[in-house]
Amino acid sequence: MSTVFVPEPHLLDSPRGRDWPLPTALGGAARLDEPPRTADAVIVGTGPAGLAVAAALWHHGVRDVVLFDRGTRPCGRFFDRVDTLGQRVLRSPYEHHPGAEGYRDCELLDFARLNWARLTPVERREVRMSQAGHRSVVPVDVFEAYCRQVASTHRVTERTWQATVHAVLPGKNSVTVCAGEHEVSARFVVLCTGEERRKAPDGWWPGPETPEGVRYWDERAPGGVDELIVVGAGLSAAHLVANGLAGGAKVHWVFRETGERYQCADVNSSFFRPEGRTRFDSVSWEDRLGLMRAFRRASVMFEFRPGLERAEANGRLVVHRGQAVTGVGTGEVRLADGSAVHGDHVALALGTVPWIGDQLLPEEVVGARDGWPDLDERSLAYCRAPRVFAVGAAAGMALGPAARNIDGHRVATARVAAAVAHGVQRGAPLAASKAVAGV
């Protein structure tokens, strides 16, 4: 008889909001003053990917860097979304972190060990699991403090301006970045714009406005819900279900698959290793599309299984498996078999889509094919704008399914930072200019 190991759900309960000792040079929020007119590099987005790029460029000696973010602090949007879901631990293990790779730097596991006294017994056990080479779970609180550490020690915060970038215009010898009322002429630009929530399909409701009583996973939940409907099969959906149950609601869980998928990682672990990326590199574009579809399917961390199974057994959770949704309205989800699920509130967790730069770059530069940008696979530069690079989910067809994960950010960062540093070292002085040459 085989034994299946199911991790205990208490791994999901790490505390938030602890005090962490941080360097005195931490600095405050993103700057609101005028950024410089020129820079060696501009990084668009200061989430985990942007943080990784900034740290790597620092170690390469590229210090004339401007970062733009619509938020007020590094990784702010990432942690706002995490806290909206009430998420306490990350799916990524300790070896996946946004610190610089290949340098004498404090890594995430080092940071956790340095702050051993602040960890709970369960968290300490996870650190030991990581040291022994086993799967480990990283607390959000530890990860956020580590990101602040990286931002501080690599002078990221003091080089970050709060502004929404609305255009990136490549020229012959420079790239103009338009952010709010500012324009910066840069030798190179790195887009670290992440992913956006996937919107409901056309036809689920009439008109562009979301029906009353319907929200997406990254929007705040209302109080006083007695019967909640959650649509989606991934980790965000699992958090919405668990939150509803914890709040005393009866929950209906609707998804198209015939059964839940529980996985340690949201992509196959082989794609985190060089041999997995080589496997992806060696096949045709059509085969890559197939691999992306096969290995980006929604799944839930194992830690959720015991609690969700207990809730289903006692009737507090009703799971509607193998059901396609045909329509959504106030307090109602209509299914393909003609039936409908009713409740007080509907929460949609339909996944995310890569932001490939098409909202910022000219369409002919992006060269989108099947929803993916045309990138140089060695440097991750846009083939039609070699001074502009992509790190994060947008590099998926170059790096494989792991591109959207924190460890994929580090692999992409290593390529991009080396290319940018080489270009800066061999380039001529850059003059500020508002003129944008043709591509």
UniProtKB/TrEMBL annotation:
What Pfam families does the database record attribute to this sequence?
A: NAD_binding_8
List the Gene3D superfamilies hit by this protein, alphabetically.
Answer: FAD/NAD(P)-binding domain
Query: What InterPro entries is this protein classified in?
Result: FAD/NAD-bd_sf (IPR036188)
| Protein name per UniProt | Uncharacterized protein
| Source organism of this protein record | Amycolatopsis albispora
